[in-house]
């Protein structure tokens, strides 16, 4: 195991199409978004924070022209922090190959994040970088622009109800528990 915390043969690579890190095994020619079994998640978390976290700028998103003014027609832009649990649709993430926490444990974790954000101790983007179970953590939770029908209904309803700069309370979807911040 090296500084990444990944098992032998695995490495972190960067997807140019999604602008996200992923895991690749050169021997078996396997790639995946979630870390492989046997990963030292604490080491990986530190490595990802040092080498694969955003620079702090939420400026342009991949595939979006930098000069664009405002969101495309009918679309909004939001960031989120996701905490998965063992009943989530896919109980795995870039942080953990198998998520075993209960929904109640996930709720306790996300409420603590919500308190820190509302108290001004951290921003959603800062926490998402190391604490979110979504691969959008690489982009400080930024999901880019999306319209009606692009996201799970509960997520979409909450996101579209926010004004730019506002953050939701805890939102539950099949993916897990979210805090959502409307960016544009």
UniProtKB/TrEMBL annotation:
Domain WW positions: 4-38
EC number: 5.2.1.8
Molecular function as annotated in GO: peptidyl-prolyl cis-trans isomerase activity
InterPro entries: PPIase_dom_sf, PPIase_Pin1, PPIase_PpiC, WW_dom, WW_dom_sf
Keywords, sorted A to Z: Isomerase, Rotamase
Domain of life from the UniProt record: Eukaryota
Biased composition (Low complexity): 63-73
PROSITE patterns, A to Z: PPIC_PPIASE_2, WW_DOMAIN_1, WW_DOMAIN_2
PpiC domain ranges (all copies): 73-184
Keyword Isomerase: yes
Region (Disordered): 33-78
Reaction(s) the record says it catalyses: [protein]-peptidylproline (omega=180) = [protein]-peptidylproline (omega=0)
Listed Pfam families: Rotamase (PF00639), WW (PF00397)
Coiled coil: none
Annotated Gene Ontology cellular component terms: cytosol; nucleus
BP term (GO), one: positive regulation of transcription initiation by RNA polymerase II
UniProt-recorded name of the protein: Peptidyl-prolyl cis-trans isomerase
Organism for this UniProt entry: Monosporascus ibericus
Lineage, uppermost ranks: Eukaryota, Fungi, Dikarya, Ascomycota, Pezizomycotina
């Amino acid at each position: 195991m090296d500084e990444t915390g990944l098992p032998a043969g695995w490495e972190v690579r960067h997807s140019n199409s999604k602008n996200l890190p992923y895991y690749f095994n050169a021997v078996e020619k396997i790639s995946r978004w979630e870390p492989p079994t046997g990963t030292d998640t604490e080491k990986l978390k530190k490595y990802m924070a040092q080498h694969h976290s955003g620079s702090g700028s939420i400026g342009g998103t991949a595939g979006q022209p930098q000069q664009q003014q405002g969101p495309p027609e009918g679309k909004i832009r939001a960031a989120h922090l996701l905490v998965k649990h063992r009943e989530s649709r896919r109980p795995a993430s870039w942080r953990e190959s198998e998520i075993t926490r209960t929904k109640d444990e996930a709720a306790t974790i996300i409420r603590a994040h919500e308190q820190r954000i509302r108290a001004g101790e951290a921003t959603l983007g800062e926490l998402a970088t190391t604490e979110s179970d979504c691969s959008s953590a690489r982009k400080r939770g930024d999901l880019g622009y999306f319209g009606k029908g692009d996201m799970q209904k509960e997520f979409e309803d909450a996101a579209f109800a926010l004004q730019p700069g506002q953050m939701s309370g805890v939102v539950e979807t099949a993916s897990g528990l979210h805090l959502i911040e409307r960016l544009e």
